[in-house]
Specification:
This protein is an alpha/beta fold.
């Protein structure tokens, strides 16, 4: 979502802020801006569009300073225009950048307008800067004024604040949105994500909910929500400083699709060296916890929710444990019936999706004792909030449309299925060996599927001229159909819907005519014959079929039936394999249409607001 970076140093901080924004840009990219203090004046530059536009303006204006805050925005309140871009300022003397949403902004806006403050944007953020300014007038203490102001805010925020009167001081605060301090040598930084700071420091201090901090050149102090000084540990980031590079690929999404064999191999590396799986792969206490539970609830958003839905089929079918999969934004506000013996599993690439983090907190507050997160970012909020964890090792995912994160999540979930299946006596040693052998073979099977790209490109050429598409699957391939439809709509803007193929005649069949491409996932599993009947129903109405089958699926190409066969049937792991051609289909369709593949309109990589 939006990104924040700030710095106080003896050197010019503008290049640091700019590099930080570039590293955060994939998370939100409709406008960008910065403010720097030079002497006792604030200089602000803002631009709608990408960070590159801001960079050009900075070069033109030769902007520099030793203290500054910067922001890349994903619009919530107010269109993505210059006047709504951050930083927002009050009376030319105080500036704020903000991630999150202030829910009581209307009420505060009325009050502050009554005091004479003039609003120049449509954002919720502008109330924060005027509110801090108001308190600063009484106290002349930036930290104290910020504490008083945030106490009046309802909603989620991570903010960075600077003031023209205090040229060596940066104040920040967080509640519901991530924020951290970077520790340098006689310089300090803030950022919403550690990746922004990696070129300047790997020493990170994570702020906790309700913290407010004052950061100077030499030191910083943190005050907790009760007004007490707080000691937060300095941690060394495990991330590497190199910015993800495209290499020979045209887009990060393409690169990330092709990285999947490596991402899967690395995710599975630590566990496949042994003949048998140890529950400890999920944490020291995992065996005790996994023996104590009687059901699993998996909570996630977006693509991660599709991984949850596949896992539901696996957990019930293979491990024999009741499982439900829930969309986080629904779960957190639903009156569910807590069962203290349910394991709450959260899945997230970023580990900071606001709804998923809030859903976990909600589950714990409502009496759930056991939690496990499957995540791609080691020190993320979700990981820190969970008792047990499994880290996927997909590496940074930059393309907004998730690809390698999804398939590595599925691999991690399959490990959970195996461990639970063993503990519950549903999987014996020979079966475990068979499953582990299949997992070992998975990266090379994915490499084979990637070779289908030229055939997929031919499908994409046809798909690109369509307005709509229907995706069908059955069993654990139904969520893969959902994922295929999501990928297509996200990056090519073609309206796509997924249905369990058995539901076709309960509504969606009415949409089928010669203009409706129907993508069907037809692995050689127990439901294949039933699926074939569903496909006949489509053909009989003139629908054009695009069938992804396995070598031995016994489906033949014919008029109106385009067929691609995957090299082999992967058994229970088949959903992972069938995902890959759908990712390539979306990618090549988007290429044909000329859309911005890595930064599709209106979306953001990491959704840190609800
Ligand atoms: C956004 C991204 C999706 C992602 C979803 C959940 O919508 O664009 O690609 O699946 O957030 O993100 P998470 O980091 O929690 O997996």
């Amino acid at each position: 979502m939006c990104g924040i970076v700030g710095a106080v140093a003896q050197r010019n901080v503008v290049p640091i802020l700019l590099e930080g924004l570039k590293r955060l840009e994939y998370r939100g990219y409709d406008s960008a801006g910065l403010v720097v203090a030079t002497g006792n004046t604030l200089t602000r530059l803002r631009k709608p569009g990408r960070v590159a536009e801001l960079e050009a303006e900075i070069k033109k204006q030769k902007t520099h300073g030793h203290l500054g805050i910067a922001h890349t925005r994903w619009a919530t309140h107010g269109a993505p225009t210059e006047r709504n871009a951050h930083p927002h300022v009050s009376e030319d003397s105080l500036a704020v950048v903000h991630n999150g949403i202030i829910e009581n902004h209307e009420e505060l806006r009325l009050r502050l307008s009554g005091m004479g403050y003039c609003f120049t944007s449509d954002t919720d953020t502008e109330v924060i800067v005027h509110l801090i300014h108001h308190h600063y007038q009484q106290k002349k203490d930036l930290l104290g004024a910020t504490r008083l102001a945030v106490a009046e805010l309802k909603g989620a925020y991570a903010i960075g604040v600077i003031c023209a009167d205090a040229p060596n001081k940066l104040v920040c605060a967080r509640e519901g949105s991530p924020l951290l301090i970077g520790v340098g040598i006689e310089e300090h930084f803030i950022a919403s994500d550690q990746s922004a700071l990696l070129p300047v420091t790997q020493k990170i201090v994570y702020l906790e909910e309700g913290d407010v901090a004052e950061i100077g050149l030499l030191d910083f102090k943190i005050i907790d929500r009760n007004g007490k000084p707080a000691n937060r540990q300095v941690q060394i980031s495990e991330l590497r400083a190199e910015r993800a590079e495209l290499g020979s690929y045209r887009h990060f999404m393409q690169k990330e699709i092709f990285e999947q064999p490596r991402a899967l191999a690395e995710t599975l590396e630590a566990v496949l060296g042994y003949g048998s799986l140890d529950p400890k792969i999920f944490g020291e206490k995992a065996e005790k916890v996994l023996k104590a539970i009687d059901s699993v609830t998996i909570i996630a958003c977006g693509t991660s929710f599709h991984a949850a839905t596949v896992a539901r089929y696996w957990l019930e079918g293979v491990a024999g444990i009741p499982c439900s999969a829930e969309v986080a934004s629904e779960y957190r506000y639903r009156d569910s019936v807590p069962n203290p013996k349910t394991l709450i599993v959260t899945i997230s690439q970023s580990g900071e999706t606001a709804d998923t983090v809030a859903a976990l907190k909600h589950a714990k507050a409502s009496g759930h004792k056991y939690s496990l997160s499957i995540c791609n970012v080691p020190e993320s909020a979700l990981v820190r909030e969970s008792d047990l964890r499994f880290l996927t090792r997909a590496g940074p995912e930059i393309g907004v449309a998730s690809t390698k994160a999804f398939t590595t999540q599925l691999a991690a979930l399959f490990l959970l299925v195996l461990v639970l299946g063993k503990l519950r006596g549903r999987i014996d040693a020979a079966q475990e060996k068979g499953h582990l052998d299949a997992l070992r073979h998975l990266p090379s099977m994915i490499s084979q599927v990637l070779l289908l790209e030229p055939q997929i490109e031919l499908w994409a050429e046809r798909m690109a001229s369509r307005q709509h598409a229907l995706f069908l699957g059955r069993g654990p391939h139904y969520p893969i159909a959902m994922e295929g439809a999501l990928k297509l709509k996200e990056i090519s803007y073609i309206h796509a819907e997924a249905y369990p193929a058995g539901e076709l005649k309960h509504g969606p069949l009415a949409l089928v005519d010669s203009d409706m491409p129907v993508v069907a996932i037809a692995p050689n599993d127990a439901l294949l014959e039933k699926l074939k009947s569903n496909l006949q129903e489509v053909r009989a109405r003139g629908g054009e079929l695009y069938v992804l089958a396995d070598q031995d699926s016994h489906v033949s190409p014919q008029e109106g039936v385009h067929l691609i066969k995957l090299p082999e049937h992967a058994g229970l792991l088949s959903p992972i394999l069938h995902t890959v051609p759908l990712q390539m289909l979306a990618y090549h369709t988007a290429l044909q249409k000329g859309t911005d593949v890595d930064k599709p309109r209106n979306l953001a990589k990491s959704v840190t607001v609800e």
